[in-house]
UniProtKB/TrEMBL annotation:
It is a multi-pass membrane protein. The lineage of its organism: Bacteria, Pseudomonadati, Thermodesulfobacteriota, Desulfuromonadia, Geobacterales. Belongs to the CPA3 antiporters (TC 2.A.63) subunit F family. It is found in: Cell membrane. It comes from Geomobilimonas luticola. This is Multicomponent Na+:H+ antiporter subunit F.
Length: 103
């Protein structure tokens, strides 16, 4: 099993480099957010690989925390960018009614 760890680590580092390039060149905020999510998932992979190699269970806790933060940030970004909360829906419904009343 020792022979598989080095190629996995190299693959994950290349993945991080690709995410860094994408984050700097991303034309939209969504591209940059996807790169940040890729950072999070790759970071989790690296931490789990390190935990396996070093037999350290504390790194798995850190990896789980990083995964949770990445998921929450992705949800928050999607909610803020594309989603509508209850108040926003009500506000838009009222604005539409006002627009139709003036026509």
């Amino acid at each position: 099993m020792k022979s598989l760890e080095l190629p996995l680590a190299l693959f994950l580092l290349i993945n991080l480099a690709a995410a860094l390039i994408r984050a700097t060149r991303g034309p939209t905020a969504a591209d940059r957010m996807l790169a940040a999510l890729l950072f999070g998932s790759t970071g989790v992979g690296i931490l789990v690989l390190l935990a396996f190699v070093q037999r350290s269970f504390a790194l798995i806790d850190v990896a789980l925390t990083l995964a949770l933060l990445a998921a929450i940030s992705g949800i928050a970004f999607a909610q803020r960018t594309w989603g509508l909360t209850g108040r926003s829906r009500q506000r838009r419904a009222v604005e539409r009614e006002d627009d139709h009343a003036f026509r």
